[in-house]
Amino acid sequence: MMDRATFNVIHLGLAFFCLMFAYQCHGHIVLSVISSVRNSTNGVSLDKNAGFYSSSIIFGTYTLGNFIAAPCVDFLGAKWALSLAAVIYTIFVAGFLHLNEIFYYASSGCVGFGAALLWTAQGVYLTQNSTPKTSKRNSGMLFAILDANVILIGVFLYFTFSIEGVGHGSDNHISKKSAQMLYIVLTSMGGLGILTFLFLRPCDVVKKQEENFGKIFCDTLRLFLDREMLLLALPFAWTGFQSSYYSGLFSTCVANTSKLGSNNEVMLAYAVLSVGAGIFVAGVLFMTPLSKSLSRTQGIFIDADGFLMSPNAWLILASGALLSFGGTCWNIQIFSFLVERFAASSSKAWAVFKFYQAMGSSLFFFYAPHIGIQAHMILLFVYLFLALCLFICQYAQQGGGGGYSGGGGGGGYAGAGGAVGGYSGGGGGYSGGGGGYSGGGGGGGGYAQGGGGGYSGGGGGYSGGGGGGGGGYAQV
């Protein structure tokens, strides 16, 4: 019989499935919707780079929101923080039923704060329902369920574009009538996600010590200076770079690559399917006993792509699958590390992780419109190499004596002979004096789904001829 904790993780995944279907599907069609609105005669005024401005607003408030996310989640509780964030996301999506520029930008700011709440609360709830033994399994399970929506989005967009005729001939835009129907469906899915969050069950045991807002905020700031967190800052930020690339720039390139012929939007639907397949396979992999044979460093080596080859349909599908598979491996390894390492301060640890991730995404979208695709590939490779080196250094520092929860350094946390011993064992650690930070789990959370916004094209490169206003969309 399924235990309560496993049921809770599945329930959490289903709630995210519904909410992220609405939000991520919106992200994939916003390019066509914004272009359609700008070309219509209904009096709506929207800048051609509105998607990019929205992305900047979202990631700005998302980054700042992580400073107060931990105390807010501790005050509200994971369930109510998740529910509140889901309401904010759904209102943002519903705004496209009657698009208004002021509301669009204002709701973008709210979504940034909602994202900080959402992913911090997700990490807390995952931690509450996980142990060091089940951390990888639960993280993989959550990813497999949560991001299975990407496969459904691909199918949904394929039939939508096929029926609408988008991508065939010269018209690559969704009509106003079809956009209305799409956003009715997406808003309904967001509403279903809210209801699913509201019915989340509490954990079997929740140990919570009352702390005031100021203390939690100060503890979060101190955790930023923790040696492990500083060492992992770039690996955390890398997940933001990587997810913003494939959710924003990659989809925009597919939609604007002339060598694919006139089927760009339909090809985008296939690319979304390949991304979903990569995420799902990686999530399922970490649910199986095979994951036990993978160390953390082996998992994060999987992130390769045919970046600089001439574009064709099969290469795009393979690239989408490899990007998402590699990114999911990175995130699951980080999730399990946080769950095992920061149980006593999960909201704080998760907020720190999401801060660096949001910073990576913010930086990506700051320079994205100004450089070509080849420069993007070089920068991403450099980021990946540095992040990999730092992740391996952090992993190596766990070796030797000492357990995760410190206390003098005898014995490894779970590895034979202390192979995966504690980072701070014996005199030191975040909490000082002779011990580790506080041991145990912590963190958990979402896959770089971060915030809307658009890549405003420009720079030629892969999409050819300087192009495409309005751009793709990065998921917070």
From TrEMBL:
Domain of life: Eukaryota
Organism name: Mesorhabditis spiculigera
Family membership: Belongs to the unc-93 family.
InterPro entries, per the entry: Ion_channel_UNC-93, MFS_trans_sf, UNC-93-like_regulator
Membrane-spanning intervals of the chain: 51-73, 80-97, 103-121, 142-161, 181-200, 267-287, 313-339, 351-368, 374-393
Location in the cell: Membrane
Coiled-coil annotated spans: none
Protein name as catalogued: UNC93-like protein MFSD11
GO cellular component, one term: membrane
Family matches, as Pfam families: UNC-93
Signal peptide coordinates: 1-27
Keyword list, A-Z: Glycoprotein, Membrane, Signal, Transmembrane, Transmembrane helix
Membrane topology: Multi-pass membrane protein
